[in-house]
Amino acid sequence: MDGRKHGIIGINDIPLKYKFLLIYLLCVLLPIVTINLFFYQRNSEDIKIREQDNLRKSIERASGELLGMIDESVALSRSIGSDDSLYEVLDRTYDSPSDYYEVYNGLLRDRLTRYMSENIVEARIYTGNPTIQTGANYYVMDHSADEDSWIKPLQQSNGNIIVAAYYESAGFSPGKRISVISKMNTYTSFSKYPKYLRIDLNVDKINRILDRELDSLQLRLMDGRNRVVAVSSGLQSPDLSNREELLVQEPVASSDYTIEHTLGDVSYAKGWKLTGIADTRRIDKLLEDAHRSIIWLAVISTVLPSLLIFIIFRSYHYRVKKLSRHMQKVRNEKFELIDIQEGRDEIGGLIHTFNVMTGKITTLINDVYKLEIRQKSMELEQVRTELSMLQSQMNPHFLFNTLNALLIVCMKKGYCEVTEIISNLSLLMRQLLRSADGLVTLEEELQFTTMYLQIEKFRFGDQFDYHFEIDPESLSMKIPRMSIQPLVENACKHGLQVRKGNRLIHVTSKVSDRALEIKVIDNGVGMDERKLQQLMDRVRNDQDMEGHVGIRNVYRRLELFYHENVRFLISSNPDNGTAAGFHIPLSKLEPVKE
């Protein structure tokens, strides 16, 4: 406590202008600078993340298209490789070229060209059968350097199908090739001569796929030997004439804007990947724009609050100093008015109050103050008198002891009905003298209400009855004490008092999906709509209730615990009775703790 006092005193010792300066630095300038720096850093990170995500989507899109071309060629390779009649024709030994051409015209012509598409430019079969005539899509292997450039990688691999990049110098169109190459060894009965299927992909289509992403990044397609086989426009095209070192290019420097993506995890495309480098000029431009916006925002958010704070500070500081000087004069018993424009804010209110105080202070000291002292003394004496009267009243325990004595006498005499009524009355009075501010379970509140109803039934006899319709789930829920009994008492007093015979009270509780609903229903005289509206207005506005104090107390107690969440409802029809109750949301109810 002493430390807190010393801390407050230390703050109070700081002059007002330094307090305003401290508030400005710590609560305005520092948060603005911190927020702008954080916003700039977060915005820069968001730009980088967004651009990296765009790069990733671009390279995934290009990779998906390239893998689609390869998968199409692989599917075609497997389809051709499963044609047993093709194996039989290629494995047959022909006596003369004319015999081969006869078979060629009957079975082989256009057999492979029908598979050509936008992605596939040519399909060839190479065989070691010397009786076949080289031409069209069928070739006799001659072990040339061109053949070795694509057959050797297949022979060195563990699988039957690979994707290879190489340079072909022979033929009508020498140049770069990217092909799907497979061994035709499906049927062992036709394995007299080795056979290979080569499906050439459309290299121009591959280049177009890479160029399609030029707006976001430049791409390099690399094979399983980490050689560059195709590049986007604008990059140096790889030299494919050197068969050993072909396609080798300097490694790409890694950065935040360099991304790498494999074509897939299939064995025939193992090691094939795309590497992309983004054009950082676009990202730098976005970061520069963000930096410029943050600077302008920081300047505006600093200058305008600073100017406003200076104007407000000047207004407060000048008037507070004026007020402080005049209050120092009051200490010397000089009661002078502050001649200044007061204003309508708190400082103006203080100045106005000070002026009023200095004008009346002498009168207050000499007259009103003394009168107040006498009046307070009289009020204190009156309170003491009332306290003495209260202390002299009958002790409630005397009444309980008397009721217990009557209970013992009635039990000895055999007055069973009277005994039960006196017992209920004693319990009822003990409950009434307890604090009504806490929460009780609905089961406990119903027990208290039952004791009251038994007393009423004793009064009215067979002309009065009651029954309960209680949802078992609601018994453990806590509600404010004295929430149901006053409604029952009001029904007995105003609804059933003037009714002749067949008086009935019906108490219900129901747990719905959203709320606990409690109703007290009587079959009394009821009331018309105008009287019901007047009753509800008096309940809500705390007006004179004319005997309906219990209803108002229930309404105020529910409002105290649940505020606007509770719904207090009364409905009535003349000669048809009245229903009063309330709805409490389940989320506001407190269950019994086991």
Question: How would you portray this structure in words?
Answer:
By secondary structure, this protein is α+β, with helices and mostly antiparallel strands. The protein has helices at 2-12, 16-81, 84-91, 97-108, 145-156, 203-211, 280-331, 346-391, 396-413, 416-433, 442-460, 485-495, 529-541, 549-562; strands spanning 120-127, 138-140, 161-168, 175-183, 195-201, 217-222, 228-231, 258-262, 273-278, 439-441, 464-470, 477-480, 503-511, 515-522, 567-573, 577-585, 590-591. The strands form 4 sheets. The chain has a 5-stranded mixed sheet. It has a 5-stranded mixed sheet with strand order 11-13-14-16-15. The longest helix has 66 residues, at 16-81.
Helix run count:
14
Number of strands: 17
Q: What value does the average pLDDT take? A: 77
Shape: elongated
Low confidence ranges: 240-255, 385-395
Which strand order spans the largest sheet, edge to edge or round the barrel? 2-1-5-4-3
Helix amount: 40-55%
Based on helices, strands and strand pairing, what is the structural class?
Answer: alpha+beta
Cα-atom radius of gyration: 50 Å
Tell me what portion of residues adopts beta-strand conformation: 15-25%
Q: Measure the end-to-end span.
A: 39 Å
Largest sheet: 5 strands, mixed
Short description, anyone?
By secondary structure, the chain is of the alpha+beta class. The chain contains 14 helices and 17 strands.
